[in-house]
Design a protein that fits this description.
276 residues, alpha/beta, Endonuclease, Chain A, 2 domains, globular
């Protein structure tokens, strides 16, 4: 087809949404105008969504699910595309996280989203709303995305998940005692799963700590590596495996310095009993 723009589904969640829309349209042999008639919009609108020039609205995604009989798949994809409270770069990371065979997390100061209870996530969202850095709708969307990411971990085959928490993640109180106790219980349950390793990096590691900032390393099905890290204003997804290898080496060194899984769980249980 003349002037048909090539789509890269890995570029961003918006690109993945558009590529999937085009793929299903092509399977049925429909033009953009013909799909537009079925969805109640113009062919130009279909083109703009397919090529990422326009974000899909909830109504658009629901119409796509109805036309293609895809349940709520388009609607769920559109949540990530529309998510306004996330740092630039994070939606693209999420699109790769759901395909990774291995996930390595290092977090400082807060329990990472993949391990948060709904109550913990809600407390963080409420705080963001009170501080005026997010609307209630944005906070609700972020909580929904956390639940969606956690659900995506239950897939076949199960991904291997390695988590190193800085001790500050455990000592920073979020909400009341009951909320933190439930969050600690969630961590213990996570540590007992057959596809996970949970470790705590205690403060007394000191200068032996090879990493000071949060980072995530993904191993993809083809064994390529990606890393994701955040600054104050944006996230950065590194897709060059050679550039990620030094980060992976530091992560392995951090694991060697961190407490064992058993010792980490023991520390969490001590905190649950109120014994620092």
């Amino acid at each position: 087809m003349v002037n048909r723009k090539e789509l890269d589904a890995d570029q961003s969640p918006g690109a993945a949404f558009g590529a999937h829309l085009r793929s299903l349209r092509d399977e049925r042999g429909w033009t953009q105008d013909e799909l537009g008639v079925r969805m109640g919009c113009s062919g130009a609108h279909i083109s703009a969504v397919e090529t990422g020039r326009r974000k899909p609205t909830r109504q658009f995604a629901a119409s796509a699910d109805r036309v293609f009989k895809t349940g709520d798949k388009f609607e769920r994809r559109s949540r990530v595309v529309r998510h306004r409270v996330l740092l630039e770069g994070f939606p693209e990371y999420v699109a790769h996280e759901v395909r990774a065979t291995e996930i390595r997390l290092y977090e400082v100061g807060v329990i990472p989203g993949l391990l948060q209870t709904p109550e913990y996530a809600t407390a963080l969202g409420d705080s963001a709303v009170k501080r005026g850095v997010a609307s209630q709708e944005q906070a609700d969307e972020r909580i929904a995305l956390i639940a969606q990411r956690q659900a995506s971990l239950i897939r076949t085959p199960l991904p291997l998940i390695f988590v190193v928490l800085d001790e500050s993640c455990l000592l920073r109180p979020i909400g009341g005692e009951a909320l933190m106790d439930a969050q600690f219980a969630r961590l213990v349950d996570f540590a007992e799963l057959p596809n996970t390793v949970l470790q705590v990096a205690p403060f007394d590691i000191g200068v032996r700590r090879p990493m000071t900032l949060p980072v995530t390393v993904l191993t993809m099905p083809d064994r390529s590596l990606m890393s994701y890290a955040e600054s104050a204003n944006r996230g950065h997804l590194e897709r060059d495996s050679a550039s990620v290898l030094p980060i992976l080496t530091d992560y392995h060194q951090l694991q060697a310095e961190a407490l064992s899984r058993a010792a980490s769980v023991a520390m969490i249980n001590q905190l649950r009993k109120g014994t620092p």
